[in-house]
Amino acid sequence: MSQQPVQSCVFPVAGLGTRFLPATKAVPKEMLPVVDKPLIQYGVEEAEAAGLSRICFVNGRHKQAIENHFDRNVELEQSIAGSAKEGLLDGVNRLMDRCTFSSIRQLEARGLGHAIGCSEPAVGPAPFAVVLPDDLCVNPGGPSVLKQMVDLYQRYQCSIVAIEEVPQDQVDKYGVIAGTEEEPGVYRVSHMVEKPDPSEAPSNLAIIGRYILTPDIYALIGQTEPGKGGEIQITDALMKQAAAGKVIAYRFQGQRFDCGSVAGYVEATQYCYENLYR
Ligand code: UTP
Predict the structure, then answer these.
(1) Confidence (pLDDT) at 276
(2) Cβ(2)–Cβ(125) under 8 Å?
(3) Reported pTM
(4) How remote is the CA of residue 5 from the centroid of ligand 1, in Å?
């Protein structure tokens, strides 16, 4: 069977960002700057560096700033043309040259699984990546986390979730996996639970905001009932693939910052200022 390449990257960005209020009352969480760049740009850079050039935002109303960030702003460009500031847009302009951007509305915030399901018309019947941009991932000097996962997909040809070990008392913030380690850092998932009570968690291996999904996930999402919190959970849809042995969990190389929380955001800002800022 010929292998279909992963070309699309879905960014579910329709959430309300309530943990970061009041900052996120009028400004999308994904547009908060880490040093001088909005979070969403770090995510799109990671996708582009992994060879994924079809970017699809699953967006909500009031969050058009995300789309506008990847569009021309002629008035601004004219006002800085020929000045030292012109170069400050090079990074985002490069992404605009190399990627295509589409946007689909999630009419109601019905959960991450539902948001991913909304991307089907843009992605079509092909494997695709998902990036939750509030998880900022870095791997200085090595391949990005998404690139590592795209490479792993070539070998495993099934859905992949990125995982990291978290303290046992924090597992209730994540989807948590159980599985057998097939090679160092690569687990065949047998079971997964969304936000388990720490006393009932099958492990402390938590799913973070990077996925590669095979397109059968769309039909499975369609069959998934609302779960934890009344939301359609991607973990529940993935469970159906895991039952058939079709989900790999990958302990990635690099570091993740949870920029959806104030503490993680401050940590990321400090890290990026010290290590990545020109
Ligand atoms: P979060 O659980 O972080 O929710 O969603 P949130 O709304 O962004 O933030 P808090 O918890 O209220 O502070 C994880 C990801 O899923 C997206 C979010 O935008 C985020 O990228 N999401 C979540 C959707 O796109 N739609 C939804 O219905 C729910």
Answers:
(1) 83
(2) no
(3) 0.96
(4) 27
